[in-house]
């Protein structure tokens, strides 16, 4: 199947088959895909936490608003976090990035207010989110991106201090009763001519 066909078939899964597990080699492949995600100046201001532990998932489900069942029934919850400690980030890039990239950060990003710097971190995390969703589509793994969560409580449960939860994704395999499957609820997108302009 081509990539366009994979994207046509992917959808936001609303109900998971809790008994169907993702093969370990596919989980490992998703981890490697995330590690390869692009970011501005190769900044990589992120951490990705794969949660399969039942007790941890239960705790996360209690602070996931309308996503409780998705967290509980999916195979894995992937938590996308941006670095929250700017000093630690600057130490990281000084060690790992070339001088030109570090100078770009110092000239264009560092002079901004703290909330703007962290918003820049968040935008990099969303690049990785798109990569994961696309990879899942290609690998026939169902996925649900979730902003409807309580980030600070996720951080507390995951014992994060230097990182802050941005978004989470439930992954697994759909329940055959899921009402949101494309054959039951056809995909709805704006017309291509309304969203694409060629100049």
UniProtKB/TrEMBL annotation:
Segments forming domain Nitroreductase: 8-173
Pfam annotation, one family: Nitroreductase
Key words of the record: Flavoprotein, FMN, NADP, Oxidoreductase
Keyword flag ATP-binding: no
Signal peptide: none
InterPro entries reported for this sequence: NfsB-like, Nitroreductase, Nitroreductase-like
Annotated family: Belongs to the nitroreductase family.
Protein name, UniProt field: Nitroreductase family protein
Lineage: Bacteria, Pseudomonadati, Bacteroidota, Cytophagia, Cytophagales
